[in-house]
Amino acid sequence: MAYTFTQEEGNQFILECHHDAAAVGRKLASNPALAQAVNPVLGESALGAAGHMGRADIAELLLTSGAKLELAAAAMLGRRDVVREALDKDPKLAHSGGAHNIPLAFHAALSGEIELMQMLWDAGAQAEVKHALLGAVMKNRLPLAAWLLEHGASKEVETYDGKSPLELAEQMKFSEMAELLDRNQGRKLPAYIRGIGTAGPKS
């Protein structure tokens, strides 16, 4: 039986691949072709959506249903062999990204794999690795967060809604992560100190 879907159905499925494993499982059971869905406007696949959200459970559902493994998703899943093989063939891929051009290093941070981050570091992606702290915080990867901080991780990175790594850890009630970031001055500096604005704090 040949399965098909409309672009609108594919786009809706990709949205669900960000967060809703139950809906993804139900839809794949009735139409496995959705695993191949791509939103051409956003440049985001179903697997790419699961990848940058750190949803390994959804990614595995998609792969089981026939989705083609993407490098960023492989990094999120901690598949070191896949990433190593890709970098051996083309070291420049260390600077590549997944959906929305989110760096490979961020996806790797979601996995919590220190060895994987070291691999990217050694491949020349130090700048990207230093900006991957949010990925470790997002999935509460405490050992990796400590490693990133030891390697000069930027604490000025922000979530899409402006939260610092420490604020994100506090919101998600990751107490040990919050303590680690607080000890390492993980609070975002005020905008005027970071040079984003010219005005000082309001009195």
Relevant terms:
203 residues; mainly alpha; Serine Threonine Protein Phosphatase 5, Tetratricopeptide repeat; 2 domains; two-stranded antiparallel ribbon; 2 strands; disordered C terminus
Characterize the structure shown.
This protein has 203 residues and is mostly helical. The protein has two domains: 1-68; 80-192, Ankyrin repeat-containing domain (Serine Threonine Protein Phosphatase 5, Tetratricopeptide repeat), CATH 1.25.40.20. The chain has 14 helices and two strands; from the N terminus they run ααββαααααααααααα. It has helices at residues 7-16, 21-30, 46-52, 56-64, 71-76, 80-89, 104-111, 114-122, 126-130, 133-138, 142-150, 165-171, 175-183, 191-194; strands spanning 38-39, 44-45. It has a two-stranded antiparallel sheet with strand order 1-2. A hairpin with a 4-residue loop joins strand 1 and strand 2 (44-45). Helix 2 runs parallel beside helix 4, helix 3 (46-52) runs antiparallel to helix 4 (56-64) and helix 12 (165-171) packs antiparallel against helix 13 (175-183). The longest helix is centred in the N-terminal third of the chain and has 10 residues, at 7-16. The protein starts with 6 loop residues before the first helix and ends in a 9-residue tail after the last helix.
